[in-house]
Amino acid sequence: MKAIQDLYPDNLAHCYGCGKNNSQGHQLKTYVEGEETVSRFTPDMKYTAIPGSVYGGLIASLLDCHGTASAAAFACIAEKIDLNQVDLPIRCVTANLNINFKALTPQGEELVIRGKLKAIEGRKISVDMTLTAKGVVCATGEILAIRLKE
Ligand SMILES: CCCCCCCCCC(=O)SCCNC(=O)CCNC(=O)[C@H](O)C(C)(C)COP(=O)(O)OP(=O)(O)OC[C@H]1O[C@@H](n2cnc3c(N)ncnc32)[C@H](O)[C@@H]1OP(=O)(O)O
C-alpha cells in the first residue's frame, strides 16, 4: 500500500512536513498497519536541541503530519473508502496538537511514530500518538484534526 501522503493530490502535496512535492521538506510517509498508522523518520543532525538529542520542534512537526495523515486515513476507513485510490478524497488540517515530551529523543536513531484512532465526531477526528526511539517512548501526542468541507 502507498503512503497516505502519496495519495494527496499534487496541488495539496507541498506541506513542509509531508508533501511529496516539497523537495526541501521532511517528506514524512505514513502507512496503515492493522488498526494503527506508522511513520518512520531518522532526523538529520541539524535538528539538535541539547547535543545528542532531537529538537522538539521537529518532533512536533512529525506528530503534526503523522496526525493529519492518520486522521484522513481513519476517516476513509470508517467510510469504507479504498485507500489505494489515486487521490485521497478526505482532507484534514490540524486544529489542536498536544505533545508531552517524556524523554530526550536520541539523535542518530530511527524514530517510530504510531497513531491510534481515538474518536470521530462529525468533522472532528482525534488521534493518539506515540514517538519512540529504540523502543523507548520519547513523546506522546494527541491531535484534533478537522475534516475540510468539500
Ligand atoms: C489538506 C490536505 C493536505 C494536508 C497537508 C498536511 C497538513 C499538515 C498539518 C498542518 O500543519 S495543517 C496547518 C495548521 N492548521 C491550520 O492552519 C488550521 C487553521 N484553522 C482552520 O483552518 C479552521 O479553524 C478549521 C478548518 C480547523 C476549522 O474551521 P471550520 O470553519 O472548517 O470549522 P468550525 O470552526 O465550524 O469547527 C468545526 C468543529 O471543530 C471544532 N474546532 C475547530 N477548531 C478547534 C480547535 N482549535 N480546538 C477544538 N475544537 C475546534 C469546532 O468547535 C467545531 O466543533 P463542533 O462540530 O462540535 O461544533
UniProtKB/TrEMBL annotation:
Enzyme type, top EC level: hydrolase
GO cellular component, one term: membrane
InterPro entries attached to this UniProt entry: HotDog_dom_sf (IPR029069), THEM4/THEM5_acyl-CoA_thioest (IPR052365), Thioestr_dom (IPR006683)
Membrane topology: Peripheral membrane protein
GO MF terms, alphabetically ordered: thiolester hydrolase activity
E.C. numbers: 3.1.2.2
Catalyzed reactions per annotation: (5Z,8Z,11Z,14Z)-eicosatetraenoyl-CoA + H2O = (5Z,8Z,11Z,14Z)-eicosatetraenoate + CoA + H(+); (9Z)-octadecenoyl-CoA + H2O = (9Z)-octadecenoate + CoA + H(+); octanoyl-CoA + H2O = octanoate + CoA + H(+); decanoyl-CoA + H2O = decanoate + CoA + H(+)
Keyword Cytoplasm: yes
CDD domains cross-referenced by the UniProt entry: PaaI_thioesterase
Listed GO biological process terms: fatty acid metabolic process
Key words of the record: Apoptosis, Cell membrane, Cell projection, Cytoplasm, Fatty acid metabolism, Hydrolase, Lipid metabolism, Membrane, Transit peptide
Superkingdom to which the source organism belongs: Bacteria
Family recorded in the similarity comment: Belongs to the THEM4/THEM5 thioesterase family.
Name of the protein: Acyl-coenzyme A thioesterase THEM4
Source organism of this protein record: Myroides pelagicus
